[in-house]
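My main concern about presentation is that the manuscript never shows what a single data entry looks like. An entry of this sort, consisting of the sequence and the corresponding backbone structure tokens, reads as follows:
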Amino acid sequence: MADAQHKRQSTVGKVPVATPNIGPSGMVSLETALTAAIGAKIRLQTVAPTSRALEGTLFTVSPALNLLTLTASPNPTTEASTYHILPISALQSFSLVSLPSPTAPLPSLLALDHSALQSRLESTIARLKTEESRKGKGVSREAQEIFDRISRTLPTRWEGKDIIVSDAVVIEAPYRPEDCKAGTGAAKESLNRVKKVLENERKKLAEKTGAARPAIPAAVPLTGPRKGG
């Protein structure tokens, strides 16, 4: 009884696959079978709902990352291979098409452009910093929406809880036209323009907020004779 239970437990997480030298039971873990098949040409089927069949050379397997890389045949025009990176857990089954040839060359990899990667990294960091700087700290949702609306028209940034527009006008809480103050050396025209923009945006925001609220049904007048009199 104990031996039978032990055998049942030992088969949990095992799947039958067609691989060389897997022993008489025909049962190995999927990761082990895939690792043993690196360099071989395989055919695999993924699970639903994105079920598909792929065929190519198993380039590498990483059980730690739960990923495998399958290399499709190179394009005869460009001689470039197509790489499919798939989660191991997405596999329904796989089978060997042919064993790896001991003399077959490894697929060539394109050289990485480190300058382009560094530039992309710096650009992403700068974008994330910009997005973060546009989020007010400790301000209300209405204040943030006012900031976002004004910034579509004029250069806008946060300075604490104050909104700085065009580096010339300060809008203090609660962010009404009368809360606008001209900075040092700012022209009166700049102040008036910011006030006008703010006034228009607050009107649009009020209309939007009012439209989002459910309408209150009007009282239904009573008709017919009243009871008891």
